[in-house]
Design a protein that fits this description.
With 207 residues, the protein is mainly alpha-helical. Helix content is 57%, strand content 5%. The chain has a two-stranded antiparallel sheet. A two-stranded antiparallel sheet has the order 2-3.
């Protein structure tokens, strides 16, 4: 069974936004913004969506270059297109709310990219489908929670867009017919403070 990974350690890009509450990123609770209350879950969500694009766009490009089937290459194109658009919206959201967002993938995400980069042929296709499908399944639960609960209209708009993007990507990854559903992780525990991510190796072992 694929399990969940630990907290992300990433560099931060400081966003010079139109709104900036004193120590907004560091505030332990909800802060007020011009577009509504901003909760810790809202702030974490924006950063998670940014992180998704930082490693899933390169993963999609690998699938376009190395994918062994039309379905894998199609999934790669959806990842590149969807996360490129979503990343622009995420940066706009961060600027509007004055949030700091990551500037590069986490250490763990870089390891997943290296694993994909090292794989070839059928192994690449299998790892790509399962790593990325597991990642999207993890974040999908968080997107749904934020979309249902946020009182911030800027975050709500981003969550609506992310919901459509993630669902599309889950579908095209499943269309590869390589996803091992019995080995996917369930929703991250404690989604009120989500830090979980996928562990990539199908079959329950890490490489």
């Amino acid at each position: 069974m694929i399990s969940t990974a630990g907290a992300l350690v990433v560099p931060i890009v400081r966003s010079a936004g139109s709104y900036r509450s004193p120590r907004a990123d560091e505030a332990p609770g909800t802060v007020q913004t011009p577009t509504g209350p901003l909760t810790p879950l809202d702030r974490d969500f924006v950063k998670r969506v940014r992180l998704a694009g930082l490693w899933e766009i390169p993963a999609g490009r690998m699938a376009l270059a190395k994918g062994g089937s039309t379905e894998v290459r199609t999934a790669g194109q959806h990842l590149v297109d969807g996360h490129t658009e979503l990343d622009r919206a995420t940066l706009d959201t961060a600027q509007t709310l004055g949030l700091d967002v990551p500037g590069e993938p986490s250490v763990q995400q870089k390891a997943w990219l290296k694993q994909l980069d090292d794989a070839q042929g059928a192994e690449f296709d299998r790892l790509f489908a399962n790593i990325l499908r597991n990642a999207h399944g993890q974040v999908f639960a968080v997107v749904a929670q934020v979309r249902a609960s946020t009182q911030n209209s800027t975050v709500r708009d981003l969550a609506t867009m992310a919901n459509s993007t993630v669902l599309d990507h889950m579908t095209v990854l499943e269309d590869t017919r390589l996803v091992r559903f019995g080995e996917l992780s369930g929703p991250p525990a404690g989604t009120s403070s989500p830090t979980a991510g996928p562990v990539p190796a199908p079959g329950g072992t890490q490489r």
